[in-house]
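This protein record is not my work; I was only asked to verify it. Where you disagree with what is written, explain briefly why. This is what I was given:
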Amino acid sequence: MANTSDIRNGLCINYNGDIYSIVEFQHVKPGKGNAFVRTKLKSLTTGKVIENTFPAGHKIEDVRVERRKFQFLYNDESGYHFMDNETYEQVTIEKAMLDSPEFLKEGIEIEILFHAEKDIPLTTEMPQHLVLEVTYTEPGVRGDTATNVTKPATVETGAEVKVPIFINQGDKIKVDTRTGAYLERVKA
């Protein structure tokens, strides 16, 4: 059992029968009245973000979690298959638990958060940026150089990304996996 003074970003707690991760918190000490902690909690089962206020000194039930690195192997109708790099144990995760499965390519390492006592996967964390090869894009139109002109491009995982017109088929680009946005061209 912990209390509100132990709250920090990333702490996992059991609240209303669900497991939540603290995304944001703020200790507030008003001039009048008692202190409290304002929090944003993200459900690890549904992904829904809620706001909640705890009075100062309130007891919270923290959940012990473990982060483990897994390598993406393949996906099929039963889900996405990952392998633990240390034990070679395989785990299957459903698509709903993944933030951006369209950017997964064979060999990518991700972190999977496990409930320590029950040993069940709670959530996954993709790398923030990935370097992917453009497999198809239309050629840029000469003279179309207005600022921020983009065109669709298909990357090696099959995902579509909006890229600047100077990107060609075969180029490697860095993509933000959280937003799906093009970041930069990577020199080979």
About this structure: Residues 65-125 form a domain with the OB fold (Dihydrolipoamide Acetyltransferase, E2P) fold (CATH 2.40.50.140). Residues 72 and 82 are 5 Å apart (CA to CA). The mean pLDDT is 88. The first strand starts at residue 2 and ends at 3.
